[in-house]
Amino acid sequence: MSGHSHWAGIKHQKGIADQKRGRVFSKLLALIAAAAKTELNPDFNPRLRTAIAKARAEKVPSDNIERAIVRAKESADALEELTFEAYGPGGAALFIEAITDNKNRAIQEIKKVLADNHGKWAEVGSVAWAFTRTDADQTQTNADSALVSPKPGESGREWKAKFPQALPAEDKLKLDALVAALEEQEDVQRIYTNAQ
Fold first, then answer.
1. Count of alpha carbons within 13 Å of 56, Cβ hemisphere only?
2. What cellular component terms from Gene Ontology apply here (predicted)?
3. Fewest CB atoms within 10 A around its CB: which of 38, 53, 87, 92?
4. Could you tell me if residue 34 is inside a domain?
5. Residue 1 in domain
6. Are the C-beta atoms of residues 131 and 97 closer than 8 Å to each other?
7. For every residue of 154-177, which 3-state class applies, written as one string?
């Protein structure tokens, strides 16, 4: 029984669970900080109110939520909201939303994940035609193949595929692996695809 203790198993499982929870917490806190850039009072900022509700549902401590709001007040220009376009296995279109304090790092990390998982970086507008927004579609483009939302305080922003695409089983598995790898990135908030 050398090396096989009950506590070692618990410690290993707890470490994995804590790591996953930490990733979720950091994504939610970045979302709160980005939402608080326009208005710090959740009563007047529906996007911040929604982000706080999501964080509380995931049991993020209130102190952490307050620190994220204060961080937004102190460094209003530090966080950027970006949307990247890419193609996945089988030609599936991908929209990747991210919130980051370092745009160049985020771009390089996402490009690396795409290259490692049968994905391809796409130019601005090459994927946008395959999606529609559920709210007013007001985006502006910048260099580095990213779409930047001009109104960071908007709420309820969702992308829906105009033309859902059926994929073969092999490409579907590769796409699932790509999406999982992208979700592991701390800066990535949401991933939309047109695959069925």
1. 8
2. cytoplasm
3. 53
4. yes
5. no
6. no
7. CCCCCEEECCCECCCHHHHHHHHH
Q: How far apart are the first and last CA of the chain?
A: 48
Residue indicated by tokens 């592991």:
184
Distance separating alpha carbons of residues 82 and 146, to the nearest angstrom? 6
Residue 140: how many other CB atoms lie within 10 Å: 8
Please tell me whether residues 85 and 177 are part of one structural domain.
yes
Query: Tell me, what amino acid is at 95?
Result: F
pLDDT tens digits along 57-106: 999 999 999 988 888 777 656 778 888 999 999 999 999 999 888 889 99
CB 103 within 8 A of CB 140: no
User: Of 58, 74, 90, which one is at a domain's C-terminal end?
Assistant: 74
Same domain, 68 and 158: no
With cut-offs at 50, 70 and 90, classify the pLDDT of residue 134: confident
pLDDT digits (tens, 9 = 90+) for 138-178: 443 333 334 333 333 344 567 888 888 899 999 999 999 99
